[in-house]
Amino acid sequence: MSDTGRASFGIATAPQQVTYDGLLQVWREADSIDEIGHAWLFDHLMPIGGDPGGPIFEGWTLLSALAAQTERLRLGLLVTSNRFRPPAMLAKIATTVDVVSGGRLDFGIGAGSRPSVSFARREYEAHGLPFHDSAHAVGSLAEACTIIRRLWTETEPFDLDGTYHRLVGAFGNPKPVQRPHPPIVIGGRAASTLRVVAEHADVWNIPGGDIADAVARSALLDRFCSEIGRDPATITRSIYLSVDHDRPGDTRARIAEALDAGFGHVVLGLPAPYPAGVATWVADELIRPSMVNGT
Length: 295
Fold this sequence. Notes:
Blueprint: E1 8-13, H1 20-31, E2 38-41, H2 59-68, E3 74-77, E4 80-81, H3 87-100, E5 107-110, H4 118-126, H5 134-153, E6 158-161, E7 166-170, E8 184-187, H6 191-200, E9 203-206, H7 211-227, E10 236-242, H8 248-260, E11 265-270, H9 278-293
Parallel strand pairs: 1-2, 1-11, 2-3, 4-5, 5-8, 8-9, 9-10, 10-11
Antiparallel strand pairs: 6-7
């Protein structure tokens, strides 16, 4: 069994069907609770749950605002769609958030929604964004990770004529607060994405699902790491678990399964609307019991 005392717990608050004040209240409360180590938003431009015409906030802008209103939490998007923003622009945005937060950014990125997910695909068409096939999306993700890391770390301008991106005189100034750069969190479960994780990620997040599948995907990641000569233990295993306010025992059981399976970075997805004191409830009902006995 994993050492639950070393587990890292966080919350995720989808910025849809909510108000800014409501989100800010949850994040400020979480910021005051030591057992909650990180907090996350997602990256969508139109709702993917509830009223399809309801309110939703842009993730990076909101993250910067919340970074300025908190002091301790590590924070990020779980995860940025690489399809939404060119990588050099994304590197600049992320650097700004790392500076605003005083070096608390965990940089989450992924290939974007699958073509089969119709409710997510509509947001690309509605905003005039291209929606390439999965092979293009994953290839572009790998190249984007290289570009972003170079902009964060290199001290001279560079040109890049890649398969998916072309840059001339690219240079990032200022650099992120964190050195050599913010941790890179890549989300996804497809084998093609896991190959990108093996090459580029500090943290791998799997978005929930069956724990047996998560274990199998983790083993596949181990194999991909070995193929390129990387120690699999250098990639933190993270899992997103949905919270059921009415059945905390079920959520605790899923947390215990995840910890037993080696997923030491746990993100607890909170359903909206957020009741008063929800962060305290999460700490009391889910995190502290799990840290004590894994149940």
